[in-house]
Every structure is written in C-alpha cells, then in structure tokens.
Design a protein that fits this description.
The protein is mainly alpha-helical. The chain has two domains: 59 residues, no CATH class; 123 residues, no CATH class. It is built from six helices and five strands. The strands form two sheets. The protein has a three-stranded antiparallel beta sheet. Strands 3-4 form a two-stranded antiparallel ribbon. The two termini are 63 Å apart. The structure holds zinc ion. Zinc ion binds next to helix 6.
C-alpha cells in the first residue's frame, strides 16, 4: 500500500499499538462469552487493519476488536471493497454506453436501408412471427422479419405486398402470422436482412 491508499481505519498507528497492547494485557486467558457473542468487526478490511494482519482466532484478538469498536464506532468505508465496487460500476456503465452506441448504429443502418426502399416506392416495416413449425431448419422461430407493405421487384427478387422478405413458397406456412409490433424493434431475421441489404445496394447503385 502506498501513502495515498485510503485506510480501512482512521485510528492512527500509535492508537492501534496502544489498543493491541491493552488487549494483550486485559484479555486474560478465558473467553468472555458476552463479548464473544456480541463482537462483530465493522468489515473484514477494518478487522485486518486493527489486528495488523490476518486473524489467528486467538481470544485476545476478538477482545482487541471489541476495544477497537469502542474506539472507532464509525470507520471509513472499506477501501478495497469500495474501489472494487466503483470499478464494477464503471465497467457496467461502459458496457451500457457501448450497448447504446451499438443500438444507435444498428438503428441508423436500418433507417438508411428503409429510406432507400422508400425512395423506390417500397414501404417496409418490422413484424414479429408468432407461427411456429419447429421442423423447418432454415426458419428462424419467433424472429422479427422485414415485412413488405408494397410489392417488390428488384433484380431476381420478386415479392408480393404482405409477405416477409424471406418469404418463399417452401417456408410460406411458417410465416402465416406476421404481426405488427411497433415497439421500435429491429429485424432479427438474417435472411430478411440479407435480402434487404442486397436490394438496397442494387437500388442505390
Ligand atoms: Zn425473415
């Protein structure tokens, strides 16, 4: 520990030495059950600072804690635990910021793709699929799809209005129920997104 490291106790080294000496002198050979039953260190870091090292379990140490509790009823916050908590909170805040930035990037990318299609007269929205037929391997169950409100004919891709971009005759019955969600969710269906990107690329070329 360096001098700038916060201490777990505000008792000075001299005060601690006095307390330790007093504890050794006063404790006696027999455990006082009343003190043993009620003495609880403020926290492990404080106890370690008071004892000057790890606990051996000797009675005089517990008596020393008892004396130190009286000498210091409200110690400073345990520095290691406090620093660890602060580091954890900083990490969590950074993770939240990163997630929000990622979300903003994904939203911007989505809006850009939607705008390209809109300029070509094709409106799309995100719809959730509640139909479930698990035996279809290529079908993403419960995904959020890109749903066409207008027919789309770009390159070799031809879709009627009222279907998802990933719609094919073979997976049609998996996509019977596509419900509007309107909660700002972004599409999660990879096939839809792949089609959307390639359509947007062709349209803006
Ligand atoms: Zn899809």
């Amino acid at each position: 520990m360096t001098d700038s490291t916060p201490r777990a106790t505000n008792l000075t080294p001299a005060e601690l030495d006095d307390l330790r000496e007093r504890a050794r002198r006063e404790a006696g050979p027999f455990v006082n059950p009343a003190i043993a039953a009620t003495t609880r260190a403020h926290n492990p870091e404080w106890a370690r600072a008071v004892l000057g090292g790890p606990r051996s379990g000797a009675w005089w140490e517990l008596y020393l804690i008892h004396l130190a509790l009286q000498a210091e009823p409200s110690p400073p916050p345990p520095p290691l635990e406090t620093a660890a908590r602060a580091a954890r909170e900083r990490q969590e805040a950074a993770a939240r910021r990163a997630a929000a930035e990622e979300r903003a990037r994904e939203e911007a990318a989505w809006r850009e793709l939607v705008d390209v299609l809109l300029q070509a007269g094709v409106r799309v929205e995100v719809r959730h699929n509640y139909t479930s037929h698990r035996h279809y391997e290529l079908y993403t169950q419960g995904a959020d799809h890109v749903y066409l409100l207008d027919p789309l004919h770009v390159g070799r891709l031809h879709r009627d209005a009222g279907v998802a971009l990933c719609h094919t005759p073979s997976n049609a019955h998996n996509l019977q129920v596509l419900e509007p969600i309107g909660d700002g969710r972004l599409p999660s269906c990879r096939t839809c997104l792949r089609h959307l990107r390639s359509v947007a690329r062709r349209l803006s070329a």
